What does this fold into?
Amino acid sequence: MQHSTRIVKLGDIQIGGPEIPVIAGPCAIESFDQFFNSIQGVYQAGASAMRGGIYKMRTNPQSFQGLGQQAYPIIETVKSDFNMPLVSEVTDPRQIELMMPHVDMFQVGSRNMYNYALLRELALTKKPILLKRGFSATIDEWIQAANYILQGGNDQVVLCERGIRGFETKTRNTLDLNAVAYIKQHTNFAIVVDPSHGTGRPELMLQMSGAAIAAGADALMLEVHVKPAEALSDAAQALSLGQFEQIMNSCRRVAKAVDRYIAEPRKLALQKSKTHFNNQEISL
Amino acid sequence: MQHSTRIVKLGDIQIGGPEIPVIAGPCAIESFDQFFNSIQGVYQAGASAMRGGIYKMRTNPQSFQGLGQQAYPIIETVKSDFNMPLVSEVTDPRQIELMMPHVDMFQVGSRNMYNYALLRELALTKKPILLKRGFSATIDEWIQAANYILQGGNDQVVLCERGIRGFETKTRNTLDLNAVAYIKQHTNFAIVVDPSHGTGRPELMLQMSGAAIAAGADALMLEVHVKPAEALSDAAQALSLGQFEQIMNSCRRVAKAVDRYIAEPRKLALQKSKTHFNNQEISL
Amino acid sequence: MQHSTRIVKLGDIQIGGPEIPVIAGPCAIESFDQFFNSIQGVYQAGASAMRGGIYKMRTNPQSFQGLGQQAYPIIETVKSDFNMPLVSEVTDPRQIELMMPHVDMFQVGSRNMYNYALLRELALTKKPILLKRGFSATIDEWIQAANYILQGGNDQVVLCERGIRGFETKTRNTLDLNAVAYIKQHTNFAIVVDPSHGTGRPELMLQMSGAAIAAGADALMLEVHVKPAEALSDAAQALSLGQFEQIMNSCRRVAKAVDRYIAEPRKLALQKSKTHFNNQEISL
Amino acid sequence: MQHSTRIVKLGDIQIGGPEIPVIAGPCAIESFDQFFNSIQGVYQAGASAMRGGIYKMRTNPQSFQGLGQQAYPIIETVKSDFNMPLVSEVTDPRQIELMMPHVDMFQVGSRNMYNYALLRELALTKKPILLKRGFSATIDEWIQAANYILQGGNDQVVLCERGIRGFETKTRNTLDLNAVAYIKQHTNFAIVVDPSHGTGRPELMLQMSGAAIAAGADALMLEVHVKPAEALSDAAQALSLGQFEQIMNSCRRVAKAVDRYIAEPRKLALQKSKTHFNNQEISL
It folds into this structure.
């Protein structure tokens, strides 16, 4: 099955091959310390790529909207420390040019899956795109949205299942792993699974991360925060570093059971950037 | 997590312990040959219990409604050959008495989850009950339906997730593995997963059976037919014996990855019943 | 359009003709006073038939389950006072015989629409049946459930739209008036609309009752309680008598705009039963 | 109830007052003849404003995407002939400047309701905005999207209910009139109803247009095409001019029943533009 998946490159890692990279980090980049410490933790636990929102889409116009351009120097420092590619969401075609030098994969969020104007623009960039499923999009509509990017000349597209909306209120969304199995059987797209939005509940993420891998996920994307209770967005669904480490250990075993693998935990070389950066100032 | 699950006995097997029993067989018992051959196949592949409908609930009143009482001699012969307990659906309180001697676990189907009159009656039997989730039931309503049985004096209840109804048309239902993980974390019910109804597509069942186990399923229930194309009900979702065997092999590996296990394949001792039974006649 | 509707008789009123009868009363019959006073109020406002639950289906097994047989003398007295037919829900085939002398139309509740055992039994009674749509039933499944009754030999079936389940939480259900218009255009079933369950909010019922009539409803069914705040079930959605009267006035105008009509308000002849009944005792 | 609605001006007509303006026209502007003839028909039947897509959002990237800038001369000619304001959908912030001189109200389509970048941009224009509900948006999310526009400094926002997505397949969407009644009771937004997308079936639109008015709609929006079978987009749901006229007649009566009114049919003064325009050429 896996042999026909079109492999997409995210920095020097591959999505769609035997390795299952884990993309982890906070919902939003809030400050240097918050981002550095979160990424340091996920790096040590074995994450292969980092995530972090620069421009946030918030249902409530009063909510924290992200650091915007103030995030770029933070990103550059953390990237050079950990040498991990960054996935970050683009919410407006006019952000593309600014984000280009700093972001390794553009994420199209669930609420923008049908924003064809944005998709066409992203097709021109030739950067890899992570296309989240609209939370009420059919599988067909999702594939057709991906086709907007392919036909625009960019074939570096991975799909991302992040839960669909239904009547259940115990979980934030319903993670649709049927769709993951379906995509693997019937298309050659690589597919990422996001159990953070897909469940909205940290205590379910270990099991659902393993389930995602068994269903055929080519990568996982998880929200991890060095201090979950203090997160400025999506605090309720952020994993602690300890929870994330347990999930990684558990997923390594499930991955092996389906003939795939996840990067091992690693030690961290000395960092100098942190002290250096702390002397600068970022005003929210 | 597993330690607090209330174990329910199905014949001499346990649901809720480290073993993950697989309940397999055809949607409906159609004839001796069909049932014997299907059950022989699933037995050899490692199934621990058998399923087979006696009274079918059909949306269309013209569809095949099951063999009814003509199924009982078939059941008795097949049970004595393979020594496996039978799970079968009860659709009317007045069937209970007839089914009692032949059925080891009563299944309450998705469309009867809210049939509290039936649930109260089943509570009086003290037989184990497999309570399928209504296809649009919230987790809360499902647990409350189980409470009808518990409060009626029967604590031998297992829940069964079989997919929920939504907007997606590529899959018959949306298998809600979030609900499985939730039930394991927040209740002490054992939970069975039915990927057959949960996907409606044989080509997705291998992945989704593994996913169910990773999500915490205590047992699997799968529709298997010796000749899927000829099945009188739910033909489109029936697994062949070959597909079932592959699923069992794959699930054994995933089960180990989460510190559980599934019965190994077994050889079959000689059967005499088959020849004997064929001389009898059942008129549909 | 209306000419092809199969007319169903409820006592001496017709459902499916130019008159739009309004069926009103409390969710459950709780006591003589509560039922008498509620029905007196709806009678005066122009209701043509009364509703009131004898056996309640409650999600929570601890909730009030209805008066059961103690309701029958209350019903008989109130029926003789107001000379209105009664619609009441049957939840178990074994209630049918007891209910037969007291109930003029059997209601099959939303959670029993798929209870084919019950439908087949009701087909044998030849009493008119009000078949509520399962809250997640497709129009096709609903029609097929009605066919269970028709093919059982009873053609006195009216459908009842009472809202479907979705993701919206501001309203209890989503009243699907598309389905009403569809049923009128594509079948010859008469159709009743229940804005009480369909909205769950008294402040929306005036507008939605009018909308139901404009969409083609052949009758309305509304929950009205003499003291809504004290209702033992569904208190949040019960209308006061004052609200009900306003709804009736508003609906009369909309009905005329679509060439139909609703009974006028009427004065009440003197009642003796009330004083008489109060001397008896009902123990909850 | 109506007294507190914030009135929004569309050209010289008001949305939110006692008059219920009807906005009608084809899904997309396809050619001068198609647009002129469609608008002439709806004008004569009593429509107060015209609709017509310039830039279409199509799920399939291969489908007809609208005339784009070639539509502007057509629009100008037809506007001068009928003196009706135009509502047209904006799908990309970069279209705003081009559309400004030609469009009297910007429509935000269902798939763009969460496109906050677009909403913020529209807030700066001070033109009236018709904000369609996302087809799976909760009422809360819809109101919050409207708040993006209000807080951006533009209070000329009307909401538009156009059907939500569910499990039903007989109708394209489920027109949620509960939401209309809710918006009227709990907010001061004016609300438009679009039965074309809300049902997807011409034969249901007469009843559902009346139902929308009874539920509290402040305006209707309907897709009408001079030759429905030849429509380049959404052909299946386009009304003929004859059907539209019947709907208008029926809606006038329902509007009166709720103390509102709809413009009367009118005769058409002689047009010269048509002959003139036909000599020009538009290449698709």
About this structure: The longest helix of chain D spans residues 241-257. The interface with chain A takes residues 57-61, 91-94, 111-112, 114-117, 135-136, 141, 144-145, 147-148, 151, 165 of chain D (CB under 8 Å).
